[in-house]
Amino acid sequence: MSFQLIKSIIISYSGKVLLSLVVYFLGRFAINKIIDLLNKAFDQKKVDLSLHRFLVSIIKVALHVLLIVSIASMLGAEMTAFIAIIGSAGLAVGLALQGSLSNFCWWNSYSGSETL
């Protein structure tokens, strides 16, 4: 490869890379603000601590995944592979947490009702 070719490639992709870095840092800032708002809302509503942490962590991971996918699409990556990976990971996590979530939902439904 000649130096001229490498220079032209760097110049053509530098704008996309800089824009994606700006979007990444702005996205991280927005995600942190959203998480802070969720924490305040859950504290005001006095949501159970385990449910609070569970929901905040799921929302935080989902927002980070969306941010990374959007940045990858800005850089020109093919989205079908990302969507397939996210779908299979979601299925795997759902199957892994199936028992835990059913126990948690049962406890949550009976915690506010009559004594057992």
What is the name of the CATH topology? Helix Hairpins
Q: Helix and strand string, N-terminal first?
A: HHHH
- Uncertain segments: none
Number of helices: 4
Using DSSP, what is the number of strands?
0
Shape: elongated
| Number of discrete domains | 1
Q: What is the helix fraction of residues, given as a range? A: over 70%
| Average pLDDT | 84
Structural class: mainly alpha
The CATH class is identified as Mainly Alpha
Organism: Desulfosporosinus orientis (strain ATCC 19365 / DSM 765 / NCIMB 8382 / VKM B-1628 / Singapore I)
Transmembrane segments: 6-31, 51-73, 79-97
Keywords: Membrane, Transmembrane, Transmembrane helix
GO molecular function: mechanosensitive monoatomic ion channel activity
